[in-house]
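Project standup — Tuesday

K.O.: blocked on the structure for the chain from last sprint. Re-posting the sequence here as requested.
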Amino acid sequence: MLGGPVKPKPKPAELGVPRAIVAGAESRSQLSRADFKAALAFHGSPAAICNANIALIDEATFKPNAVKLDFLRNLFGRDY
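H.V.: unblocked you, prediction finished:
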C-alpha cells in the first residue's frame, strides 16, 4: 500500500554545480567563463544556455562518481 502523495521538492533558485565537473563542463560548452556562468542563470542567447546545460549533462555522465542524484534532479527540474 502506498503512503500517500509525494511532496515535490522546491526548485532551487540557483544550481549548485559540483566543483568536480564545472571546469570540464565549461570547456565542453565552448563558452567563456563569464558566458558559461551567465548561461547557467538563463542569461544570454538561447544557444549559449543550451550549450551550457548540455555540457553539464555530458560532464555529469562522464564523471558519474563526481555528482549526486540530487544535482541531476535539480538540473532537469529547473524552470527556464
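K.O.: great, moving the ticket to review. The mean pLDDT is 82. Residues 46-62 form the longest helix (17 residues).
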